[in-house]
Amino acid sequence: MENLNPDSVAVRGAHFIGGTWVDDRAGLEVRRPSDNRAYGELPVADAALVDRAVQNAWHAFRYGDWARRPPRERARVLRRWADLVEADASTLAPLESVGSTRPIRDALAWDVPFTAEGIRFFAELADKLGGEVAATRSDSLGMTIAEPYGMIGAIAPWNFPLVMASWKIAPALAAGNAVVLKPSELTPFSVLRLAELAIAAGMPPGIFNVVQGTGHETGDALVRHPRIAKVTFTGSTRTGAAIMAACAECGTKPVTLELGGKSPQIVFADAPDIDRAARMVAGAIAGNAGQVCVAGSRLIVQRGVAERLVDGIAGAFAALKAGPTWHADTTLPPIIRPSDAARIDGVVQRTVQAGAQIVTGGRLLAAAGDGGYYAPTILTGVHADMEAVRDEIFGPVLTVQTFDDDDEALALADHPAYGLASGLHTADIGRALRFARRLEAGTVWINRYGRSNDFVIPTGGYKRSGIGKDLGRQAYEANLRFKSVLVDFALPD
Ligand code: NAD
What are residue 54's phi and psi, to 5 degrees? Predict the structure, then answer.
């Protein structure tokens, strides 16, 4: 595979409302994470423009036929959309890769096809899940009818711009809603192409819209808009809490929140293959340079195998190639902004000052380019109160804690705030299933770490890692509300 020329990727900073591009006064400069070069400008939708987008979508929802179409017809549009997304990989993947932290090889092999397949998964549910008939007295018929909310406000993060947005949009649209999406202001361009392809696939104009801008202005206006019936958000726990408060203030609006994590990877001495476990642990924290919500950032390892495992992880880190996303051989992409790389380094250095030791890494990688790059880092000699163990870093930083028995492992794995994901490696199926029951996390991976391509498995957090699920039938149903209908058909005497 050849390197990509980043300057060949042209972007247009605009909103997408009512099936067309809407140009607007530019308010923000957008930079390429790989070299920190400004390469596009972004408008910031104010409350008036958000209102225009939402009213337009409301009109399309209320007076158009999207929600009333036979579900299989909606599904057909979504399947066509997925096909167009897949066929558009040569445009979409470079757009995604240049503007984000996604290496071009991964964007082609995973982000674009995974986005398309996710759309297909939700299309398949459109006529599979609905209401039910209730067990009432025999002279009446009670039923629940599944209906779309109407208008869904979706807010997405920057770490996997296409995939994260598709997990919000696809179930909402399949269930018959209209959507107004605000992507992250750091990675705003690729979803515009997604919106354009939706129109090409036959989605009625106004059913899927994109408004651009900052969180505190555009995002807040979207969340609070009275026509937005439900909010679905992926991002940090702090922003999730602010959105939940806004939803409460403006009328107890329901909200789905996919938030941050500090996920443990537990390795027992009887792990089937310690070298394989080392490679997995390394991949689970270094993938996308640790900028993954489910990054396995806390290694909890049984004492007898700790040294061998840590050596294996350090070896896997050493084999990574830092570089811009447009290089075909890049396996360690940049940190989203140089300021975030500096923030990551700050956490590492303060944790070292508090007594931790650096096994490898612990420094910025200046030579990799003008973006912010950070060396994959292993910290030992840590305890639960240290900043690097306690806080989500969103970078390639792994802390190591050792244990002797199962109870100790479980106590270390429990995080006071987060409960997004967890992984464990053991050959003992009984122990694996005991831990699967007892770990306080929305997902438990056993002898693996990371999502599979099984869209049917939902993802979502316990505790402050979130409310509700993305993927699975749960995500589809979260875009429906249920109306109870009771028909009395007893004839008068
Ligand atoms: P962020 O919270 O800073 O921003 C996310 C989105 O919210 C952006 O579009 C932003 O503009 C918007 N926003 C910010 N303030 C807002 C406000 N007051 N009202 C409305 N919208 C607002 O998060 P980020 O830095 O983009 O993403 C990284 C975070 O996302 C990490 O914490 C990561 O763990 C989390 N994440 C979670 C999942 C999951 O599935 N649980 C997946 C990916 C990322």
Answer: -70, -40
Q: What is the pTM of this model?
A: 0.96
Measured CA to CA, the distance from residue 79 to residue 102 in angstroms comes to: 25
Q: With contact defined as beta carbons under 8 Å apart, do 294 and 65 qualify?
A: no
Q: Are strands 208-210 and 178-182 parallel, antiparallel or unpaired?
A: parallel
- Which pair of tokens denotes residue 253? 């609006």
Condensed to tens digits (0 to 9), the pLDDT of residues 245-284 reads: 999 999 899 999 999 999 999 999 999 999 999 999 999 9
CATH code of the region 264-453: 3.40.309.10
Query: Does 419 contact ligand 1 (Cβ within 6 A)?
Result: no
Residues of the chain with CATH 3.40.605.10: 6-259+467-482
Q: Is residue 196 among the annotated active site residues?
A: no
Q: Which atom of ligand 1 is nearest to the CA of 237?
A: 32
Answer yes or no: is the C-beta of 122 below 6 A from any ligand 1 atom: no
Nearest CA to ligand 1 atom 16: 215
Mean pLDDT along residues 169-184: 98
Start and end residues for every CATH 3.40.309.10 domain found in the chain: 264-453
From 162, 191, 239, give the residue whose CB has the most ligand 1 atoms within 8 Å, as the site to mutate: 239
**Is the pLDDT confidence value at 163 over 70?**
yes
Task: For ligand 1, say whether the CB of 155 is within 6 Å of any of its atoms.
Answer: yes
Round to whole Å and give the CA distance between 64 and 203. 11
* Ligand 1 contact via 475 beta carbon (within 6 Å): no
Q: Is 264 near ligand 1, meaning CB less than 6 Å away?
A: no
Q: Is 258 a catalytic residue?
A: yes
Report the topology of domain 6-259+467-482: Aldehyde Dehydrogenase; Chain A, domain 1 (3.40.605)
Residue 6 buriedness (CB in 10 A; 0-12 / 13-18 / 19+): buried
The C-alpha atoms of residue 493 and residue 487 are separated, in whole angstroms, by: 18
